[in-house]
Every structure is written in structure tokens, then in C-alpha cells.
Amino acid sequence: MKLKLLIAILFFTKISFSQTIFGKWKTVDDETGKEKGMVEIYEHKGKVYGKIVEIFEQEHRHQKCEKCEGDDKNKPILGLVIIKGLTKNEGVYDGGKIVDPKNGKKYHCKMTIDGKEKLIVRGYIGIPLFGRSQTWIRQK
């Protein structure tokens, strides 16, 4: 009986960990389908953040976010925190912002997990209808 209970606990723990948003995700450009880099999503003080930890294109690895505003202006894109302040709300992460380092613009951000290996990241202005989505792939 105890063994069955232990197996059940381990099974459900594995399921809940596989559905976490935290970890490294390969970013894929929604317009070109090209793999761009890697973002690590983490929690800090109860909020969700994400920073660029790898850039695949050699020529872009040392670029700075010249068009960003505030504290992010002229910071290296590699290491830049582009997702800030999201919270989980009924399986959806939202309530924060995402920055596009190409143009420096900030957008509202909404993220949902699609299966075990995909993350749908939507940046939008005003309401989610006015935005675009990217599908990121979980990295192990």
C-alpha cells in the first residue's frame, strides 16, 4: 500500500514539474521560422522573468539594445531581461511586459504552455487580439 502511494506521488510530481514554465526555451521567429536564441525563464519574488542567455547568430551576439528605453538602453542584448513581472493566473502567465530587442518596444505579454515542450508567447498592445505570437521550444 505504501509503495503504491509513493509511486502515485512520484507520478503526479513528475507531471506537475513537466508543466512548469521555468527553464530554458529556444526562441523561434514567428515571421521567418528561424531559431534565434535561448531565453531562460525564472521566478524572482513571486514574479516571472526571462533573460536572453544565448544568441545563435554570431553577428548579433555582441549587439546592444540601442532602441530600448530606461535602464535597458544600450545594455548588451545577451543577458538582457526581456520578460518582466508576469504572474500565473489560471494556467496563463500575464500581467507583465516583454521587450523586443530589435526595436526596443515594450508590449503586454501573455504566455501559455502547449503540451510539455511548447510555450506560446504573445506580445500585444491593449488587448491580446492586437499582437503576435511565437512558439518557443523547451530545452533540456
Automatic annotation (TrEMBL):
Superkingdom, taxonomy of origin: Bacteria
Domain DUF2147: 23-138
UniProt cross-references to PANTHER family, sorted A to Z: BLL5882 PROTEIN, BLR1215 PROTEIN
Protein name: DUF2147 domain-containing protein
Lineage: Bacteria, Pseudomonadati, Bacteroidota, Flavobacteriia, Flavobacteriales
